[in-house]
Amino acid sequence: MSATQKINEALEILKTLGLPRAQQNERSALCLLALCNMTPDLNWSQAESPYIGITPIMDWAKEHYATNYAPNTRETFRRQSMHQFMAAGICLYNPDDPGRAVNSPKAVYQIAQETLALVRLYGTKRWPKVVKDFLQQQESLAKRYARERDLVKIPVSLLEGTQIELSPGTHSELIKAIIEVFAPCFAPGSSLVYAGDTGDKWGYFDEKLLASLGVTTDSHGKMPDVVLYYKKKDWLLLVESVTSHGPVDGKRHDELAVLFSDAKPGVVYVTAFPNRATMTRYLGDIAWETEVWVADAPTHLIHFNGERFLGPYEK
Asked: Which residue, 151, 182, 208, sits at the end of a domain?
């Protein structure tokens, strides 16, 4: 069977399952084929359910279907195909480890068992009946899988008494500690302005509050992981959460200084680490006139020179 014919069959399946027109394309068809490990020479009755990540999906498609997607289309595969598959209950995300971080290189997808049983009957006399049954339960399946994903999210209590949820992972765990431990200790009564999320960069954003403080930004602005407004001292605390990427070094300090150049409050730069072992890997990079907080020693700050301890400097 030709590769083109197999892709067309995958497209027909997606259309039958009610996927939006934006997902009725070769990219999404290849995603479905990879989820089922359906090479051109196999019948749908031989569909399998391997664990597979985004880059492996692209590599698999190149090997078996002679496609050649650029590496920078990885996010398109994830956001414009796999997200919709999950929303429709067609596939699962990290079923082997639901607590795995969203941005983990080990992140994987797997076709849902209900979908697997369905596609194995494609082209048979039973196909119309099983499709009808699947579509009747598809919404409940999608809701159930969504609830299961929500169960592993990290709840974060805000200083105002409300709560947000962040995607699982060590990065989000550290953001939680910044908000729940660092802020009450070193900026008591402060308000959360922004908290990033590995799953959704704009995890929490009080855009109106930030604008009132003189700062406007958009998705092109590279925000720090956490922004706190300490009204008592009229400070904006810009906190970077470092688990696998760099601290507030000289380059990042300059980027943030530009992004917050119109801020009315004084700006304070803080790098947060989960532990001292992680911190030691970056000691040589941390910018002067910044602060360092380590979650496993939460009542202490490390001050990198400068004329004051935890405070803004003249712009």
From this structure: 151
